[in-house]
Amino acid sequence: MEVYLDNNATSPISEKVAEAIKDSFAYYANPSSVHSLGIRVRNFMDDARNKVALALGVSKEEIIFTSGGTESDNLAILGSLKKTSKKHIVTSLVEHHAVLNLFKQLEKEGYEVTYLPVDKDGIVDLDSLSDCLRPDTALVSIMYANNETGAIQPIEKAVQIVKNMSEKIIFHTDAVQAFGKLPLSLRSIPIDMASVSAHKINGPKGVGALYVRKGLKIMPLFRGGHHEYGMRPGTENIMGIAGFGAASDEAVENLSSSIEKYTFLKKRLWEGIYKTIPRVLLNGGLDKTLPNTLNVSFTNIEGESIIIMLDLEGIAVSSGSACTSGSLESSHVLSAMGVPAAAAQGSIRFSFGRYNTEEEVDYVLEKLPPIVSRLRAMSPLEK
Amino acid sequence: MEVYLDNNATSPISEKVAEAIKDSFAYYANPSSVHSLGIRVRNFMDDARNKVALALGVSKEEIIFTSGGTESDNLAILGSLKKTSKKHIVTSLVEHHAVLNLFKQLEKEGYEVTYLPVDKDGIVDLDSLSDCLRPDTALVSIMYANNETGAIQPIEKAVQIVKNMSEKIIFHTDAVQAFGKLPLSLRSIPIDMASVSAHKINGPKGVGALYVRKGLKIMPLFRGGHHEYGMRPGTENIMGIAGFGAASDEAVENLSSSIEKYTFLKKRLWEGIYKTIPRVLLNGGLDKTLPNTLNVSFTNIEGESIIIMLDLEGIAVSSGSACTSGSLESSHVLSAMGVPAAAAQGSIRFSFGRYNTEEEVDYVLEKLPPIVSRLRAMSPLEK
Amino acid sequence: MQYSEKVMDHFRNPRNVGEIENPDGIGYVGNAACGDIMELYIKVEENIITDAKFKTFGCGAAIATSSIMTELVKGKTIEEAEKISNKAIIEALDGLPTIKRHCSVLAEEAMKKAIEDYRSKNV
Amino acid sequence: MQYSEKVMDHFRNPRNVGEIENPDGIGYVGNAACGDIMELYIKVEENIITDAKFKTFGCGAAIATSSIMTELVKGKTIEEAEKISNKAIIEALDGLPTIKRHCSVLAEEAMKKAIEDYRSKNV
Ligand SMILES: Cc1ncc(COP(=O)(O)O)c(C=O)c1O
Ligand SMILES: Cc1ncc(COP(=O)(O)O)c(C=O)c1O
After folding, report:
1. What is the pLDDT of residues B67-113, one digit of tens each?
2. Nearest CA distance, B43 vs chain D (angstrom)
3. Mean pLDDT within B334-340
4. Count of domains observed in chain D
5. CATH no. for residue D22?
6. Does the pLDDT value for residue D33 go beyond 90?
7. Which element (helix H / strand E) includes B347?
8. What ligand is nearest to the CA atom of residue B102?
9. Which residues in chain A are closer than 8 Å to D60, comparing Cβ atoms?
């Protein structure tokens, strides 16, 4: 059996997305061209732009296509900081590396950074947010939902706190994991920018978007032609954009049924683990997290060895974020939540997607307990 | 008849590329993942990397995938400038906007820029290059072949001049238009970096690469995970990369036959134009230009109106670069070559690709003369 | 750039192309470096424009705005013709892409110059 | 990360897992925060290592290096065992991914500590 439970890392392309990509091959001209072949491609691209916009609850003039979530995060943050001389910026301790590593770099370059702490469930502390805002605060970037634990952040409240302090503080959210998994209606919150990525919702890898609220101007990350309202130069990734449009459409269409399905599968998996395996910890809890994400610590054993053992049974999961797997650091997210090292090291993220079934969950529940036992039998911490 | 002669703007996806893209759908995991599904994708991606490397005559560890030519140019230039404190940089007056607009921005930020002039055929003046180099010269960026006229630059000589002055001056070339159209063997020249893009050679739009010579370290344009040897973060565009690999493979395979074919078609088109239409100018000449590119000025009439008239007959061409079409500036390339305004405004670029035929050229030769006559009959400059 | 059908019609079938022999007024605006040159000719009888022709070097919008301008002024008094704004031209063409609006301004200016020329000869 | 077949074999079927009752030497290295802990046990008779066992908390490479180390030392003299370098371990495993080389260092250190422990008890 092949069971893919790593959908937060990336997800397989759906049939409709594959169709949209194949259809895009006929739109081969350059959308910047004057001739009618070019105009056709421009309209084709704007169709997809509209679909992404609808999924976010915004309008298509507010969508800039990028090469993915990482670029969107960087464009939002660097692009707006280049417009101001203020030097205080705020984020949380549990951001994705696309945001966190950028903030660390900015800190080196002279910015003053506040990293907001989180509680034991990984929820950002709003009092710390209120307290840290200053007259020279330029920007606040807090993710919508966490990639490792699925923790859903109180974004609406956070935006209110920031905008009450000053309308001028830019509020950005990394909505890469929330997009297509939670109902989003960004127009109804005074949020300035939001990053999304196609490949987390059965779209292609290498294409993302940045929502930039109407009226807000940011600087491009790099220079070239006048594409994407002057904010993102380079010939557009038509094939990827077409796939992204189709994926957004489908995500909206299936939203309530997938939330229902994920909630069921997640509960079944957690209850099964809890019943059959001693000394497990649920990181982030069941309810304040994305319906598709379950993060569990198996104390006294290490994540990579669990992953490989599961892999040998055909089960694909990850520990921490896909970007850091293979690196030596343990999860900065779990450590910010206060999870002790011996438990953090043994954390596994199960993330559900469109194609998972109840049978797959039961298969995991059959294979997992003996693996944990075997590894614990080898562990010097088990005494 | 539909005749697409705008292959320098972008080109249609070939069948093999389409197949490679469809095949990539089965490689759906994240190449950074620990599990075997991830490893499979990593190997799949490295296959494509190898193909791109072979087409450039370099090795696969020297290839960084990006979102296209524009990003590659910016990554090369900004990424190496961040590693030095030297403030003099050199480029030519005929670069693509991805390079030229970046240099203009750097000039604003305090860099001293030398813009090398070109001769009447658009060839960069090497004496000016020798003369301008200084102890604080950080970088020289000269394109391999021009997108508008096809002018092929004396890159080998330019590199020698620069490296004779100092090994430490970084030499970058925008090889976006040369790639797949000229034999390239970058390893045999002491060049440091070269930018390429898939969509100019029947690959997908939105994916490119930067060759970074072994041992050279540059800074990333933006932050995130440790992808692409730490130089370009973000989940990789697997589908685009697969298509790029296939396109590179094909370009190498077909190189000599396409050069032959393009040379024939170009000569036929130019001779036909020259015989039937008075007062035309060949910009860049026939021999020092890319075999697939023909740039002709029809004096006293304006490019956009020619394009639209041709478009009404099913013929797609462009004037200037696709990025500037629709903008009001006239071609900076032709103006650097000293082409007078009334001729520069009426310049048309015919750029051949894989699927063009002799019949298509004859069709253009049938439709073009009456269009030029009609527009000239309307022109106040024709007296 | 996406032109309206009206613009495309005036571009494909421009009205009143050419010169008027012994015109009563000529308006010449633009230059080659900018990419647009318009030359408008008018024939005036008893303060009414009885004929108008144009020659234009320029893009599709430049040709279309010149063409429609010659249509709009025919039969109008000098005072009426003088009041035709670039907005009126854009409306008459069912719109113009933003970056092409300057063409309608050129057409307005060319007509004003032609009228000025006519007046300067008829004081 | 792509492990060699040898590493995968030692990971799937680790040799000599467990503890030795009344061992002659124990080596303990690493900590949970770093993600790797190794505990090696040796039994020594007449300067020859007659048995070795391990317990390891860590990644696939940590388990495989511990496992192969216990195999390598069995039957060797103390002096021979002491000379087994991390390079020898990497070689015996047909290679390790670069970012996993520290595991081989840990295994070397754990064995050295076990021998040190044995010596300290047998002076
Ligand atoms: C929360 C979050 N932000 C950003 C990213 C980066 O997106 P991408 O991989 O498309 O660059 C990811 C996923 O990798 C993510 O989970
Ligand atoms: C010479 C040259 N450089 C750079 C680019 C930019 O490449 P891309 O469109 O892939 O960003 C192009 C084409 O648009 C080009 O012709």
Report:
1. 999 999 999 999 999 999 999 999 999 999 999 999 999 999 999 99
2. 10
3. 95
4. 1
5. 3.90.1010.10
6. no
7. strand B347-351
8. 2
9. 304-305, 308
The domain in which residue C19 lies consists of 5-116
Considering only CA atoms, which of C82, C72, C64, C65 is closest in space to residue C25?
C82
Which stretches of chain A drop beneath a pLDDT of 70?
Answer: 320-329
* Cβ of residue A320 lying under 6 Å from some atom of ligand 1: no
Spatial distance between the Cα atoms of A301 and D84, rounded to a whole number of angstroms: 27
| Pairing state between β C36-45 and C25-31 | antiparallel
Residue C103 sits at the vertex; the CA angle it makes with B382 and C28, to the nearest 5 degrees, is: 45
Encode pLDDT of A129-178 as tens digits: 999 999 999 999 999 999 999 999 999 999 999 999 999 999 999 999 99
Give strand pairing partners of A193.
Answer: A172, A212
Structure ipTM: 0.94
Is residue C34 part of the annotated active site? The answer reads: yes
Using the predicted structure, report yes or no on whether residue B116 has a pLDDT greater than 80.
yes
Distance between CA atoms of B250 and B56, rounded to whole angstroms? 13
Distance (angstroms) between ligand 1 centre and the Cα of A69 equals 5
Is C36's Cβ below 8 Å from some Cβ in B? yes
Q: Under an 8 A CB cutoff, do C60 and B301 touch?
A: no
- Please tell me the CATH superfamily of domain B3-10+255-382, with its number: Aspartate Aminotransferase, domain 1 (3.90.1150.10)
Q: Which ligand minimizes its atom distance to the CA of B209?
A: 2
What pLDDT digit, counting tens, does each position of D65-101 carry? 999 999 999 999 999 999 999 999 999 999 999 989 9
Structural domain spans, chain A: 3-10+255-382, 15-250
In sequence order, what are the residues at sequence separation of 6 or more whose Cβ sits closer than 8 angstroms to the Cβ of residue B335? B341, B344
pTM here is 0.95
Nearest CA to ligand 2 atom 7: B69
The amino acid that residue A45 corresponds to is: M
CB D76 within 8 A of CB D66: no
* CA D21–ligand 1 middle distance (angstroms): 50
**The pLDDT of residue D73:** 97
Q: Which CATH number, 3.65.10.10, 3.40.50.2000, 2.40.300.10, 3.40.640.10, labels domain B15-250?
A: 3.40.640.10
**Chain B neighbors (3+ CB pairs < 8 Å):** A, C, D
Chain A CB contacts of B113 below 8 Å: none
Residues above pLDDT 70, as percent of chain D: 99
Output the six-digit token pair for B306: 């020619």
Report if residue D34 sits inside a domain. yes
